[in-house]
Each structure stands twice: as C-alpha cells, then as structure tokens.
Design brief:
By secondary structure, the chain is α/β, with parallel strands linked by helices. The chain starts with 9 loop residues before the first strand and ends with a helix. The chain binds 2-phosphoglycolic acid. 2-phosphoglycolic acid binds next to loops.
Length: 252
C-alpha cells in the first residue's frame, strides 16, 4: 500500500471543541457498554494536551451523572525511577487531574509502575500486555503527539511491532519535560511505554494536537513516509482514527 492511501482523517477545531467532542464519544461508549452489561476500556495519555478532555469528563460526571463504574483504564506510559507520589509521576497526574474526580479506583486504573525493580521490568511489561488482553483489548485510545513524533513514549526508532517495554527517552522528550522537573538533570532517562502495536490494536484512536509547537510534527504525521522516524505516522491507515488539531497546529 502506498503512503498516499494511508490517510489520517482530520478535524480542524479549537481545543475546547475537541475536548467536548472526544469527551462526548467517551461518554457515549461508557453508556453503551453499561447498557450491554460490559466494561469500557480506555487508553489514556498525560501531558498538557488532554487536560480539556479530563475537565469535560469531570464536568459530565458532576453535572450529568456520567458514571465510571464500568470503566477500566490503561495509561500509555510512566517514567522509570519515580515513586508513585512523585509530583511528576503520571500516576499522580492521573489521580489529581482525573481519577479522584470521577470515582475511578486504583482497581480500575492501570499505569505502569515507575518504581518497579530493574529485574522485574520485563515481567511487569508482559503483565501489562496480559491485563489489556484480559480486559478484552482497548476500546478507545486517546493520544497526544510529542514534538518528535512520539506516541506514548514510543520515541523515534520505535517499530510498528513494538509492545509494552522499557525505553530510553529521546532528548527532545527530556528537554520538553525539563521545566516541570525543575531542570534537565532531574528528568528520568528511561520509561515504560505501551508499544506501537498495542496502541494500534485499539478499536478507536483519537489524537489531539494543539498549538504552533506541534505544527511541524503534525505536518510530518500527515505527510512523511510511514516509519520509525516519526512513530505518529504509524497511526495513518488505522481503521478508526481521527486527529483533532487547531489552526495553529495545522499552520492555518
Ligand atoms: P503535551 O505532550 O500534551 O504536553 O504536548 C504530548 C506528548 O508528549 O505526547
């Protein structure tokens, strides 16, 4: 198949519109699954980009009674070497920004452990894959894109076949995290990430990219040859994928 065939459907909209549309899709999925007596399985990101979606879901829980009792979540990634309570751990981010506000309990929410012993990392990654499979696979994956094209922490060089594993973080990823950590020297060098293949097996994938900082990587995601130079290009051709990007990210 030529690259031209591998398209990535696009919605041009504001971050607020994207947050509302994505949150509504997630709410519809949760309610549809509940009606069928089933769980909805979400794959969730961290970073600045998804905050609007989490805020909207919290609002729906508060104002519209959206119930998360039949939801299981798997986060994309976690820094290695951080305790769960570290201010920059994704576990803490998720609890403070989302889980605690919608009644999602630790038993429903999977995030790789950042403080797993080195000898246990491989087994922990295999277990993560097994839990996703046991949950019936990912129904809905929400993703951001790093400026270097990473999805999760699948950094440039990641293969399409990759699975949940330990990775070395790319210099752009570490530089982008430096401010939050109070200096580059405090940013972990390694992480655990869900693999590209794991993500691509999600039945529905929604990608968010906002702001001029993302313009170049959005262009590459849409147009560059599909391959490990920008793992976000692997999203093209997925059976049910959509990119929500604002004018700044699209250079319009
Ligand atoms: P950001 O990160 O949302 O903070 O821009 C995106 C990503 O690295 O996936």
């Amino acid at each position: 198949m030529s690259n031209a065939v591998l398209s990535l459907p696009l919605t041009l909209c504001s971050p607020l519109q994207a947050a509302r549309e994505v949150a509504q899709e997630i709410a519809d999925l949760i309610r549809e699954r509940r009606a069928g007596g089933r769980m909805a399985v979400l794959c969730l990101p961290t970073g600045r980009t998804p905050l609007g979606v989490y805020e909207e879901l919290v609002r729906m829980h508060r104002d519209e009674g959206l119930d998360f009792a039949n939801v299981t979540t798997f986060n994309l990634d976690e820094f290695l070497g951080l305790a769960p309570e570290h201010p920059q751990s994704f576990r803490r981010y998720m609890r403070e920004r989302f889980f605690a506000h919608v009644g999602l309990t630790p038993a429903q929410t999977w995030i790789p452990f950042g403080d797993v012993a080195p000898a246990q990392i491989e087994a922990h990654c295999r277990e993560y894959e097994r839990e996703i499979a046991d949950a019936g696979g990912l129904d809905y994956a929400l993703l951001g894109i790093g400026r270097n094209g990473h999805i999760g922490f699948n950094e440039p060089g990641a293969t399409r076949e990759s699975r949940t594993r330990e990775v070395r973080l790319h210099e752009v990823t570490r530089a982008d995290a430096a401010k939050a950590f109070g200096g580059l020297e405090f940013v972990p060098e390694r992480a655990i990430t869900m693999g590209v293949a794991t993500i691509l097996e999600a039945r529905r994938i929604r990608v968010l990219a906002f702001g001029a900082d993302k313009r170049e990587i959005v262009r590459r995601t849409l147009e560059a040859p599909v391959g490990p130079q920008a793992p976000s290009t692997y999203l093209r051709g997925h059976a049910d994928v959509r990119l929500f990007a604002d004018e700044a990210a699209l250079g319009r």
